Amino acid sequence: MKKSLGACALAALLVGTFGSAQAAECKVGIAMYTLGAPYFAAQVAAAADQAKKAGCTVKTADGQNDMGKEIADVEDMVAGGINLLILNPRDPEGLVPVADAATAKGVKVVVMDSSINPKAHVVTQVRSSNDQNGYLVGQWLAKQTAGKQLKIILLSGDKGNEVGRDRRLGVFKGLVEGQLIAGGKSGFDVVGQGWGAWSEDGGLQAMEDLLQAHGDANVVLGENDSMVLGAMRALKAAGKKDVLVLAAADGQKEALAQIKTGAYGATGLNDPDLVARTAVDIGLKALAGTLPSDFPKLNLTTPAVITKENVDKFYRADAVF
């Protein structure tokens, strides 16, 4: 069953005590497939903080973008006696067996941010609506570029990653619909796709390579803010000033600062703090046995596109991310 929860409803889950989950020994493992971008660092910090506030001991692991290492990390955590696993999976299929094995041993497993195959035996998945965030960004892009021929450089995270796929396809869907509504026709070219591993340095390198072959590109679309921030460095070094840059999702504060100045077009809202704390809170309730039997298997935050017009609602200079 799918159910979409708004930001306020999700935030409400964070209020209160955790009853028997606190009374019992609580050992939380947080397995991240990478910490190679600021978003993931903020996410693991928020998850660890939320678990510690509930009186739990916490162990974290960085999979270093290696599925085999992440699987080993989870196995080590389960062997070490965790009873709650917060899992950000590197691969939606590859992490199913280890998630199922953890559940079979009595560990409550909550997946956050990245997706896992719904056949996996987990409590739930908590993430932003990648498709809907992308859709809103795509519609914004259509309005901003009405009547222009679009030559898009696409910066993707990792091959096979479902989050990246949903984000870019969401943008393209919103772009097509926006163009159709405005002019009754649609058209754009994705002139090149690069893989930036979700990081700023990765985005910089991918953009440098793509610019050599596609110097006439006029739009850079990234699947997260970090890669686009790296692309902006490459564009500046190449003297490219008339390129619209935007991301399908994240809301990284450095990107929001650039949106405030008009140097960066737009991004989708993907709050790592809210996603992480909600995932931990749900896991603690599962551990305490207080989740309803019909608790949804997918929980989504409310989507939004962040632009110069509304960025002040979201920008916090002191934010971790």
- Tell me what the CATH architecture of the largest domain is: 3-Layer(aba) Sandwich
> What is the terminal separation in angstroms?
31 Å
Element order: H for helix, E for strand: EHHEHEHEHEEHEHEHEHEHEHEE
Name the CATH class of the largest domain: Alpha Beta
* Share of helical residues: 40-55%
CATH superfamily of the largest domain: Response regulator
- Average pLDDT metric: 93
By CATH, the topology of the largest domain is Rossmann fold
Order of strands across the main sheet:
1-12-6-5-4-2-3
Low-pLDDT segments, ≥5 res: 1-23
Beta-strand percentage range: 15-25%
Q: Let me know the largest β-sheet.
A: 7 strands, parallel
Shape: elongated
Describe this structure in words.
With 321 residues, the chain is of the alpha/beta class. The chain has two domains: 156 residues, 3-Layer(aba) Sandwich (Rossmann fold), CATH 3.40.50; 139 residues, Response regulator (Rossmann fold, 3-Layer(aba) Sandwich), CATH 3.40.50.2300. It contains eleven helices and 13 strands. The strands form three sheets. Strands 1-12-6-5-4-2-3 form a seven-stranded parallel sheet, sandwiched between helices. Helix 3 packs parallel to helix 11 and helix 6 runs parallel beside helix 7. The radius of gyration is 20 Å and the shape is elongated. The N terminus is likely disordered.
